[in-house]
Amino acid sequence: MWQGFTTGLLWFSAIGCGLMAGIYFAFSTFIMAAFGRLGQAAGIAAMNAINVDIVRSLFMPLFLGTTVAGAALVVMGTLRVSEPGAVSMIAGGGLYVIGMFVVTMVFNVPLNNALAALQPSAPEAGAVWAAYLKDWTFWNHVRTVASVVASGLFVAALAS
User: Fewest CB within a 10 Å sphere: which of 52, 56, 129, 133?
Assistant: First the structure.
């Protein structure tokens, strides 16, 4: 039963991290660039609208579920460190929790909160928006890479 649970959790995590990577990849490769071309007021409004809707969508259960699953896999791998796939479970879970969840909470969410508090047509909005695009996208690249690598490590654990 323990092995079946672990296998199910690894599949959920591999697929969930892959889905998260896809979302982040889309933002990193074309969504943020498109928002940047909209101009500050429209770009800020679009990003703020996404930030409001995303917390009410199926993104949140996936975001939180994969984080909890990743943390559980770190614990499970640590308890069975000598078994095949354990190191991949630990590395994948740790990378995902730190590289996706912690980065989101420490960098992306505060940037989003500052953007939400900004008046889009204010004189300082242009400089804030330019910095936001650069900084938010950089940290989103980190989340993308962490999610892709974690997904691969979970697949490697499944293959062991």
Answer: 56
